[in-house]
Amino acid sequence: MPLTELPMADGPAELVAIAAMMSAVLLAWRVPPATPAQQPRRPRWLAWVGVGLGVLAFPGSLAAPLLVLLLAAGAGRSLWRRRAEMAAAEDTARRMLEACDLIAGELAAGRTGEAALAEAAEAWPALRPVADASRLGGDVPVALRSLARTPGADGLRLLAGAWVVSHRTGAGLAMSTRRVADAVRLDQATRRVVRGELASARATARLVAVLPVVALLMGSGAGADPWTFLLGTPLGLACLASGLAVGFAGLWWIELIAGEVDR
User: Fold this and answer.
1) How many other CB atoms are there within 10 angstroms of residue 246's CB atom?
2) Which residue pairs, CB below 8 angstroms and at least 24 apart, start in 151-154?
């Protein structure tokens, strides 16, 4: 059956299904907050209910193509979210290094640890709980280790260790903090080299994933009708589903390998 002759949604059930599926897509593609602590609890089951209602209410000839496309959208969203999390971690790492340099500079200038943390918290608001812990007499190393669990801020564990050593032995906190900042800078430089080496592999994987889409567009421009075969026939749907699955699996595998190397 040609794609243009597929039955369209013209009844109340089909209209309800369209609304439900649009709501599900919006729920699934909503951009997550930058940090897990800011992420609100989201009713994920509503998205699955919307997808289920949409697939069941559509005519049989449209249900399978929509299901394949929605699954592809979900896989694409997972990859997109992973890239967004990596970008957020890189930004956190950059701001953490700036905060470590600022704390080391303030301590070297003779200011107290509380004042140095307060100044750093002004530049990087994520440090506010640590500065508050210092101001209220709380456990600063524990607050630093808690913040270090944020992706990209793992270098704060070194700062927490330096804080503990300084308070237990009386060693100079300014020099220890400067060494921590230098160690964090060296670690981030190594990570940048690793990411640069992995960039070509990631770019190749994305290019290979985009090539089938380019081939389909070229086929449509040459007078062929690949979309009718892919979306209007069972064999075409099977080819589309398997191709999307292999493509997303390859992209995800590359990201997993890159993540392991980065760690």
Assistant:
1) 12
2) 151/85, 151/88, 151/89, 151/92, 152/88, 152/89, 152/90, 152/91, 152/92, 152/93, 152/96, 153/92, 153/93, 153/96, 153/126
Distance CA 254, CA 263 (A): 14
Contact 69, 46 (CB under 8 A): no
Q: Report which of 100, 221, 85, 216 is spatially closest to residue 150, judged by C-alpha positions.
A: 85
CB 84 within 8 A of CB 31: yes
Query: What's the rounded Cα separation, in Å, for the pair 183 and 177?
Result: 10
Render the burial of 7-40: b for 16+ CB within 10 Å, e for the rest: eebeeeebeebeebbebbbebbeeeeebeeeeee
The count of other CB atoms within 10 Å of the CB of residue 46 is 13
135, 118 Cβ separation under 8 angstroms:
yes
Q: What is the DSSP string of 142-193?
A: HHHHHHHTSTT-TTHHHHHHHHHHHHHH---HHHHHHHHHHHHHHHHHHHHH
Q: Is the Cβ–Cβ distance between 148 and 135 less than 8 Å? A: no
pLDDT one-digit tens code per residue, 144-178? 999 999 888 888 998 898 888 887 776 678 888 88
Taking 70 as the pLDDT cut, the residues of the chain under it are: 1-69, 170-171, 262-263
pLDDT tens sequence across 114-125: 898 999 999 899
Contacts of 52 (CB under 8 A, 6+ apart): none
CA–CA separation, 126 and 103 (whole Å): 14
